[in-house]
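Standup notes
- DV: blocked on the single-chain target, sequence here:
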Amino acid sequence: MYLRPIKKITVSVPDAPVSEPLPATMTFYVDTRFTPAQVIRIRQIISPVLGNGNVHFTELDEGDAISRYQNCVNKYAKFNLAPVWFEEKLTNGSAAGVQMDSFTSQVTANGFGRAAKAYIMYQKSGSSTIKGVNASNPETNSLTVTINASDLSLTTVSTQFLGGSLFHAWLHREGYRHPAGKYTSYFAGEAAMCVMRGNKNKLSEIPASIYTK
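- DV (later): unblocked, structure below
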């Protein structure tokens, strides 16, 4: 249980074309030390993460062989392609699909109250923008993260970038791992960077550190 005063917020879930029923909303419990403006931004950075999932499933539903998200991840992710709970070996071409299916499980577990409460914990400042502690069961583990409030208020950091940082934290909650400080070529790092770039290709003039810092 989180011991600081909290405020309950709900976020709408896009009606993606998936086989299992989706909840109308997700619920988060936000530390009251975040300002009202910061809470608004927290809502805003959840949107590109949920939106990326919606677009992924919509593109597949409309007949695309792979989604733009899958195409981006396939190009760049080479290592730690499977979450820790996945027993089979995953190839590059199937990893992103497995991840999105289990992310849907995280969304439904939160929205239908099957998972533990998802806390948005406060950190005044620090080296990480958004951090999620490693977990291993998307069916029951919460989507709890800690957010650096100073970074959240930076107008120089786009909402899309912050959304990718949140996605990276949730990938840790989903069961994905990477060596400390190493993101390039690892699924959890590359998938998050794909979200930050809107699933566009990398540009040689933009170093990975722009995303990973």
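- Follow-up: The mean pLDDT is 95.
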